[in-house]
Amino acid sequence: MNIKDIRLTPLHCTFKQPYHWSQGVTYGAPVVLIEIETDAGVTGIGECSASPTHAPILAILEDALPRFIGQSIYDVNQLIWSYYQYGFNAKGIGRAPRYFSQAMAGIELAAWDAIGKQAKLPLHQLLGGKVRDKIEYFGFLQGNTPEEIGAHSEQLARNGFKVLYVKVGRGNELDIAILREIRKAVGDRVRLRLDANEAWDMLNARRMFEALKPFDPEFIEQPVSASTGPEGLARLRAVTNIPIAADQTVYSAEDVYDIVRCRSADVIVLGMHETCGILRYRKAAAVAEAAGVNICIHGIFETGITTAATIQVAATINNLDNGNQIMWQLLKEDIVSRPNLVPKDGALPVSNLPGLGFELNYDAVNRAKDAYAKLRTQVV
Ligand SMILES: [Mg+2]
Q1: Which H or E element spans position 254?
Q2: Which positions of the chain have pLDDT values less than 70?
Q3: pLDDT of amino acid 312
Q4: How far is ligand 1, taken at its centre, from the CA of residue 142, in Å?
Q5: Cα dihedral value 333, 250, 351, 54, nearest 10
Q6: CATH second-level architecture of 127-356?
Q7: Cα-to-centroid distance, 222 and ligand 1 (Å)
Q8: 85 CA from centroid of ligand 1 (Å)
Q9: Does the structural domain 3-124+362-377 have CATH classification 3.40.50.970?
Q10: How far, in Å, from the CA of 21 to the mean position of ligand 1?
Q11: pLDDT tens digits, residue range 163-175?
């Protein structure tokens, strides 16, 4: 089965409500829809996370396409890495592996979707079979004020989420007020995870770990800047008894190796757009597994395509966490029409639809395409 064409469609998926976190306020998800047409008549669908903005991801994809079109889709792994050599190493300066991973993850996802559809098998079967029937998620708390976030925590706990997750690093007093409202609303019925998204320096992190301890956080994610490296997290971990999750410090299997070697984290938060897709996600998870550390699915600005794809891969990973992240629910409308991706009691079943296990809503795709066209006149 050869690749006949690859269509790139930039989309802007608007959020239902402003998304408040330590780095500011975000209003939507920039993605590039990838459709690989094959000479077998099968079309594989994937997406690239186009953060912080579409242009560099589209530029990399346009540069890469001539090396994929006309080639066998079953060679996608080799095609991606030969493009890395040609497009990033051979051209010399600034290898930019993170941009490369974001761009190529979308191609790899779409290739796997086509391969699964052609074989009439779900991806998890092509990867050797699932080790679980469902993936468990945390309830992701939204809102600006402590009262809004407290009310949302009550709602998500009522919907069956056993783990809740909230952004901190928005100011020490505000963080404490948010935690107070959450515990007031849900008591100790839920496990509570916090994500500071690199907001604290080392001293303030130590101060906040003490101040937040009474609210019994299960872990605090990426408390300090990723620029402190695995050692920064390790230094903090050595002086606190609240577990630490590594997020922005980790993108690749090699980063996972550094984290476990430096004993920097109790859990690693990682997504497929960071690892350059499915095969390297499994490789990264395997490195963590060897060190007895679990992988928690990381959501970034993405749609249900990534949720569906990640379910397929996560189903095959032994050391998967039981409070994973999804992000499509932040969108005003998702572009996936099937299956239903609303977690029930905090979990989603592993789909047996062929490929990545989803179908697109093209009306919603067209609306997101129109929103992209209007970007020049909006704050996004
Ligand atoms: Mg995070």
Answers
A1: helix 253-261
A2: 92-94
A3: 98
A4: 14
A5: 40
A6: Alpha-Beta Barrel (3.20)
A7: 6
A8: 30
A9: no
A10: 10
A11: 999 999 999 999 9
